[in-house]
Every structure is written in structure tokens, then in C-alpha cells.
Amino acid sequence: MSSPTITTTDDLAARAAAALDACGVDAALRTTPGGGHAVRTPITGGAIATVDATRLPAPGPAVTHAAEVFATWRATPAPVRGRLVKRLGELLNTHRADLGALVTLEAGKIPSESDGEVQEMIDVCDLAVGLSRQLHGRTMASERPGHRLSETWQPLGPVAVITAFNFPVAVWAWNTALALVCGDPVVWKPSERTPLTALASCALLARAADDVGAPAGLVQVVLGGAETGRALVDDVRIPLVSATGSTAMGRLVAPRVAARFGRTILELGGNNAAVVTPSADLDLAVEAATFAAAGTAGQRCTTLRRLIVHEDVADAVVDGIAARFAQLPIGDPFAQGTLVGPLIDGTSEERVHDAIARSLADGGTLVSGGTRRLQDAAPDAHYLEPALVTMPAQTAVVREETFGPLLTVLRYRDLDEAIALHNDVPQGLSSGIFTRDQAEAERFLSAEGADCGIVNVNAGTSGAEIGGAFGGEKETGGGRECGSDAWKGYMRRMTSTVNYSGRVALAQDVEFGG
Length: 514
Ligand code: UN1
Hints:
The chain contains 14 helices and 23 strands. It is of the alpha/beta class. Residues 120, 166-167, 171, 244, 300-302, 462-464 line the site of 2-aminohexanedioic acid. 2-aminohexanedioic acid is lined by residues 120, 166-167, 171, 244, 300-302, 462-464.
């Protein structure tokens, strides 16, 4: 199914302008088309706005300002810092429709997912506000009489946040809500494809700062490509770089930041798998896998790329998913009922075609999908049927992230084999097992089970809540964002010994005369 008509680029541009106005984005930042940075919507492939990047700060001056504002912000009590994030959450709530529309316009997500992304921002603001009164240190027993040993958490400094097009605002909010309550200003380099959502978020934050009397410029947007990213990555005044994107990008960022002893939080490629055991509720597994593989047109780092299915239920699962894929309405995300929107660009589409071709060359079978849609209605856009491929073995192409709607099914005989297949990829973000056998679930969750940062039971690989720490192992980069104790990544740990005994006592009973 696909919706045959696509909203015109002019109408989409008008929607973008209205949403930007509502969020308070300075009209001067949006120059007339022809000059500046053109923003294209994946819905039609047409240009919907132009950003005058010369009005945004260059990385160097942005970091200088961030360093200045850090001096004030770190001295502001954390619960007072929390008031800013509370206000930001309120404004996000008021402007959820505007921001959601911009996410759909720039990233091509269906409105329900765009709204979900804005909800994710609001949720992490709530979490951060609570944290602003709970940045707990601890007190340890000192081995010396009359001494107190404790640990406190201090603001770290300006944080560079580099985000990808697919979650253009939620991932920024994960980092920014925590950074702000932790006392750190943010310099944000959004994807060049999604500057409008960034400008809108930044305008709302500026308004929130104004409303609560927080300093201006706690968050600044810098726009640009690799060179802009490099300037942030190499700037010694930035103790933490939090970057989301491809593993290739992470390979450039990590050593450069490490060379200057900076810290990174990296959220890089995924190649996520779920195991379906013979005891699984197959309807549930098929439904969950359908969303995880085809939702966001397969463009999540948590997208389900591999389904490892027991041979006794493999045919039923493949048939079930093929049937569900065939029912998914593909088209203009703004059209009522659409579930699969466009890919971000032609390169993404090519990557999927290439992965399918290589899978077939390796002995795989294309069960369904993989065909381009809506070519007449939107020749410059890239709508693709989610593809389902079965493979006899986990060859090199299956071990790569596709970042598109391509689900590969592999068969297994026993759980050890399934877990070995599951873990035999370079990435380690998200995983799942569908089973009604508790022993199987526990095995999957054990030290000998899935090797990912996120491991689910009877739930798909995508769609994590913000309350847990989000991130993955191996080539996914090892970073953790969002919930749990991820906030510690944005702070400096201070261990303190206080001697109130009135005499010198050395640790480990060391004697030094006197
Ligand atoms: C991403 O694709 O970079 O768990 C983040 C999920 C979302 C976040 C995805 N909450 O799918």
C-alpha cells in the first residue's frame, strides 16, 4: 500500500516556516532561497528553507562563549539549574506540534514517531529536573581516625554535542538536559540535514533561559560539516564530546579527543538482532519485529537488522513478517495512515539495494520488498518497501549496519548457536529474545548471553525508554546517555579527605618521622 499523492514542496516549506515562527526562530536566520544553507525535506527531496549560517557562531567563538558562561553556570546551584530544564520541558510541551512537524519535515518520520521524539525530550527534561536535586556523592569509611573520606560531583565544562539526522532533537535533549543540570554549557553541531529542528530547539531553550533568568548562550548551535566537527573535537576547552553517528565518524572522533585527554560519549553504529525461540508468542514476535525493522524506515541505530529464528518456527515467522511488511502503508508521512516514510536520501537507498544484492550473491533469498515506490509522485525522494531477506549464513554483508529497512532472517538449531550468531558482529547496541521459557531468557541476559548494551526480552530492539542508560559496546562506542547514572559522564568526580583529628596521620600506616 502507498499513498499516491505527496504534499508539495511549497506546502511543506510553508509548514516549516509556520513551525519556526511559532518556536520563535529569528526570521533573519532564514534568508531567501539562493543563498545560505539549503534544507531539503526527504518527503519530496525539495528545498523547504535556507539557513543563513553566517549568523551562527563559528566553533571557536562558540567555545569561547561557552567557557565564559561556564564560569557562571557552574556556580549556580544544581536545583536552580534544574529550573531552566523544567521550563524547557514546559515549552517543549507547548510546542510539541511545531517541533514534531519540523522533525517530520526534516527527517521524514511519521507524525506519531516525531511526536514520540518530542515526548522523549520532555521525558528526559523531567528526569534531569529530578536529578538536579540528586547529583549524589557518597561518603566512605576512612581508615584513619578523625578523617572523613567523600566523593562529590562537580561540573565538567563545555560539552560538544554532535547529533545525527535520524533523532535530530531527542538525542540532543538526552545530552543537553543532563549537561545543563550538571552545570555544563553545550555547543551543538546538529546534522547538516536537520538544522531547522536545532534552531527551533535552541530558540525554545533561549526563551526558557530568559524566563528563569539563566544566562544567555548556554546552548549554541554551530552549523557545518566535518571541518566544524573537527574544530570542536580538537578544542582543549571542551572536556567532553558526545557524538552520535556512524562507526566511521566515531573512528575519527575518538582518537583525536583521546589524544588531548578529553572524554567521549560515543553512540555509533548498531547491527541489532533478536532471537525467536520455539516457545515464543509468534504473533507478538512478528509485530515487535515489524516495528523494529520498518519503523523510522529502518533508520534508527536500534533498528532490527537480523532476526535469528529457530528452524521449527522460521517459516511461520518469515511468512508473518512478509505479510505485515506488505500491509505497511508507505508514502508521505503527513498522509493519514502512513507508517513508512522516505529514506533520508539517495545514498541511503543505494546502501539498501547494495546490501540486498550482496546478500543474494551470498546465497540469500529476497522474500519480499526492496522496491522503490512513488517515483512518479516524488522523483527526487526515496521511498522503499521494507525488504525481507533470508540467508543461509551470516556473511560479511549481514555483519554490516545498513541503516535502512532491510531485515535478514537466519535460522538456528540450539540456543548456543543463536547466541553465537547474535554476538558475531562488530557492533553491540541493542538486542532481544522472544521466548516464554524463563531459562532461555535468563541465559540470554546472562554473562554468556547477548553482548549488547541493551538486551530485551519479548520486546524489539528499538524504542528504548529514557529511564535506562542508552548505548552499546564494541563498535557502537561504549558510551551511555540518558537515564540511570549516565549523568556521571557529564561531571568531574572529586574525592576528598578531610582531616579533623588535629594531627598528621598517613594512609596505609606509613611512618615518616615526626
Ligand atoms: C538513535 O537511533 O540514535 O531506542 C536513537 C530508540 C530511541 C532512540 C534511538 N529511543 O530507538
